[in-house]
Amino acid sequence: MEMRLEYLGSTLVAKLDGELDQSCAAEIRERIDNEINLHGITNLVMDFNNVSFMDSSGIGVLIGRYKQIKARGGKMLVIRTQPQVDKVIELAGLKRIMDFD
Amino acid sequence: MENYIKIEFPSKSCNEAFARAAAGAFASQLDITVEELADIKTAVSEAITNAIVHGYAGIRGVVEMQCRISGRTIEITVIDKGRGIADIALAMQPLYSGSDDEERSGMGFTVMQSFMDTLHVESQVGVGTTVTMTKKVGAIFDD
Ligand SMILES: Nc1ncnc2c1ncn2[C@@H]1O[C@H](COP(=O)(O)OP(=O)(O)O)[C@@H](O)[C@H]1O
Ligand SMILES: [Mg+2]
Fold this sequence. Notes:
The structure holds two protein chains of two kinds. By secondary structure, chain A is of the alpha/beta class. Chain A is about 40% helix and about 35% strand. In chain A, strands 1-2-3-4-5 form a five-stranded mixed beta sheet. Chain A is globular and about 30 Å long. By secondary structure, chain B is α+β, with helices and mostly antiparallel strands. In chain B, strands 1-2-3-5-4 form a five-stranded antiparallel beta sheet, with helices on one face. In chain B, α1 (about 15-25) packs antiparallel against α2 (about 35-55). At the A-B interface, α1, α2 and α3 of A face α1, α2 and α4 of B. The site of adenosine-5'-diphosphate has 22 residues of chain B, from α2 and α4.
């Protein structure tokens, strides 16, 4: 999985590309958390447009980042999920917790 | 149709993508919808990941995956000879994770259960775990 990070003021946009599973979850988590801490990020947008697959490892990544951002009083938005990703997110009940677009 | 494959590989995380792709390619011999195929790949990813990260936590072992087609049903079996599960009912509960990695969601078995028709787990502590799941596919292609 590849990830590109972009900044819009204090908002971090993480554009993910590829398959999000356990093999890359820790690296994604660490890179985003580093950016949040280093650059005083308050809001996070996770762009899933190019994510072709995600399993429950991705649920852990989303919940973990959501907690970080919440603790900073910010907002997290997950955008452009494909049907397979959406189904996993739906099953985990994340739609009741965080914002999707 | 009747067919099967059996593959084994070392418990490396990079094999998770390979295993679900292999299961998906095998299942594609059937008339199957895009959603059914995605469900199978997702369930396989969960079972394989569990074998690697929980079964063989911290050690290297061999994971075996069998895929069998009989009629329109695909059966997938994932076997590890790792540490085993002491309380299977507890392990299968939604949101339960026995792992000390605080970012495991505990949703793996729930995904397998929801995305497949049947899920059966056999396990013995110190011996290993066998996860068997089935799904009947392609009903939409009936007339
Ligand atoms: N193959 C396995 N070998 C040993 N323990 C397992 C295995 N599969 C699952 N488990 C146990 O069951 C728990 C729940 O699994 P799961 O629902 O996939 O959640 P998660 O993987 O996020 O912890 C795991 O945390 C682990 O303790
Ligand atoms: Mg799991």
